[in-house]
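Field guide to reading this record: the first block holds the primary sequence, the second block holds the structure written as discrete tokens, and the final block holds curator observations. Each block starts with its own label. This record concerns Myosin motor domain-containing protein, catalogued under organism Eutreptiella gymnastica.

BLOCK 1 — SEQUENCE
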Amino acid sequence: PLHYQGNTVMEQMQCAGVLETIKIRAAGYSVRMTHADFTSQYKIIWVSLGDMEHTPATPPELCRAILETAQVWPEEGAEVRDVQLGRSKVFMRNPVYNALQCIAKGLQVHNATAVQSAARVARSRALVARLRYEAQQRAQLCAAEAVARAPVEGEWALGAWERAEAMARGAVAVTEDAAIHDLMTSAHAARDVILQNAAEMEAELRRALAQAQKEKEEREAELQRRAAEEAAQRLDAEKQELQRRERER
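BLOCK 2 — STRUCTURE
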């Protein structure tokens, strides 16, 4: 009793993991995380920046993929290693831990802003669709009122149709301006916050403007087609009225 056998104590400490803990603390790895905790906290780095075509099969492989994506994994043959990947844990010194925290936080803000931007764009498009529908309804109502009030023949009918067409064009133009203004506002607000995605936001803006211009041209073509059809119908009606009067004479 009261005597220690060195070999036995060494075996017990090794089995209990005490020696490994002492070595880790002596090496200065102040941060220790299990593979599950590490991937749960920093998986956003690999999901946002990593190669999604090659999915790691095991937790240790995913941990290494995260470290490599964050560019904190030591090079081969490096004498100083600020991070070590164990069988069940990841050991890090403060510089690596701080770098991972900074990257993860930045990506969280970036992704949250992207989601908010997408929500603003969706809300803007819904508003534009509603304004477009209301403008079309107003244009149809104006056209119907013009038909009901105008005489059947002569310049009064033509003027009524022209006024209705002008009101429809004005309503569509107002809706189009609101759409372009709203999309521009959303795009610029997102671009100011997400500096890393400036190219993507500019592409989205160009696509939105091109789509808005395309829709505007389609609506103008539709208005022209309707105006031509209505003019033809008016001419036919006037011709039939003239023929009827000739027969009555």
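BLOCK 3 — OBSERVATIONS
The first helix runs from residue 6 to 16.
The beta strands are 31-34, 83-85, 89-92.
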